[in-house]
Amino acid sequence: MSGAPLVELSGVGVRIGSSQILRDIDLQIDAGEIVGLFGANGAGKTTALRLIATLIRPAQGRGMVLGADLTSPDRYEIRRRIGMIGHVPGIYPEMTLGENLRYSARLAGVATTKIPEVLAAVGLAGAIDRTAGASSHGMQRRAEFARELMIDRSLLLLDEPHSALDRDAVDLVEGLIERKADEGGAVIIVSHDRDRINAIASRSVELTGGTLT
Questions:
Q1: pLDDT digit string (tens) for 103-152?
Q2: What b/e string do you get for 30-65 counting C-beta neighbours within 10 Å, with b at 16 or more?
Q3: Is CATH 3.90.180.10 the classification given to domain 7-212?
Q4: Could you state, in order of their start, the residue ranges of all structural domains in the chain?
Q5: What is the pTM of this model?
Q6: Residue 77: how many CA atoms within 13 Å on its side-chain side?
Q7: DSSP 8-state symbol, 136
Q8: Could you tell me what percentage of the chain is helix, strand and coil, using 3-state DSSP and rounding each to the nearest 5?
Q9: Strands 155-159 vs 7-16: parallel, antiparallel or unpaired
Q10: What is the tens place of the pLDDT at every residue in 186-199?
């Protein structure tokens, strides 16, 4: 792919308190790539996603995401272009699914008119007024993917995206991942399911002891 990398980490280290979680991370991700990120529990995979999402500053090295330095105030300006779905659904349980999407749309500065359409696309057409707390884990995850359909992101970060999803929902997720790459964005997927991710990923990397191999 031509153009600047969407993610470029060089010698990056991350400390949390007195613990060194990531060390000497070198990673480049270009537009159109789907990258699988593997590693044992505690290897630092979620920390790596949080770093790329601009939620953690590197303690060492240099990190650039979507053209912004991860140690500069510029990182705040790109957060709207990064979508992150964790293994715990990031939605408000006291709000309806529709209200959750409206809130996300306002934060991202996008129109709310597509909410019924994107909920229907993930199989939640009749659930717009259902509170998230009264929805199953799988429904909550579908709502998060509806949010990513609604907001045009350049970078999508997924932590165990297939968890608690039925076969139809898995197909929807994989369609969204491939669509994002086809549109010139990039996707990073943390998963323990190597076979499933390798089937859709451009390539994969492994975190071992806080270092990429």
A1: 999 988 999 999 999 999 899 999 999 999 999 988 999 999 999 999 98
A2: bbbbbbbbbbeeebbbbbbbbbbbbebebeebebbb
A3: no
A4: 7-212
A5: 0.92
A6: 9
A7: -
A8: 35, 30, 40
A9: unpaired
A10: 999 999 999 999 99
